[in-house]
Predict the 3D structure of the following.
Amino acid sequence: MASRDSPTAWRRWLAQELRGLRVDQRISQRDAAERCGWSGARLSYLETGQRPVLPEDLDVLLPLYDVSKEERQQYYDAVERSQAEGWWERFEKLIAKWTQDYIGYEQGAVEIRAFEPVVVPGLLQTEGYASALMRSGIRQRSEREIARLVELRLARQAILTRPDQPTRLDVIVDESVLHRSPTEPGILTAQLEHLAEMAKRPNVVLRVVPLEGGLQGFSIGPFSILSFPGDRPDPLVFVENRAGASWIEEFESVERFSLGFEGLLKAALDPEASLAMVREAAERHARQ
């Protein structure tokens, strides 16, 4: 079941559960909508998460799907959790809708597998590195805006250090990430030292794909695979690009990214050798 800390994940859990309940009863979407006195579009929106599920929706759907009275409360509880306000919503004026959705899913994930060929992943960035990265973008931001965005990025990282069931992060970076330095002195050294410290946590696994490993065709860009507790919601893939971002949910497509990640694992150094490479890079930059 989805994390109680993420209304975004709860909304997706509800949508997938309602569709699963209907399919289990072998009722078509059209027939279910007619029995509820709804349009087909209304039920479709509920099952795809485009419309929030309300208690009155469950009043009609759960009896139709033959859900026992003992089992119904979990769905009403999920509706309540899905309507909560995520802490990240106070930053909504600064970030796009897809960024809000990603953070919501990220906060509810039990595991994140990610590949980053260009920069240190956001969940592992230091304040200085994140600030330098935002200043280097095409869009010109005010210092106040940068400070708020950095605050948001650092707040997201709490999922890795919380005492109760921290999220597992399995991340692969290209070796070039360890050498691509901001113009300000000392930032990359501090970032690499932080990366080495985080890699010692039991829920964080860091691997590096060495430059000397040659070419590999498992991925041509960054991606993240997010998994959630229990059977639902299903895993999904997040791919960011210049036009915004893409969510990939179809099972076959998610599997392709999972296979790509497995291929990158074979090309990468093991965690111990990767950590040694990060420390060596930190020492080299500190001497420069």
Q: What stands out?
A: The first strand starts at residue 111 and ends at 116. The chain has two domains: 7-82, 90-287. Residues 78 and 177 are 40 Å apart (CA to CA). The chain has a mean pLDDT of 91.
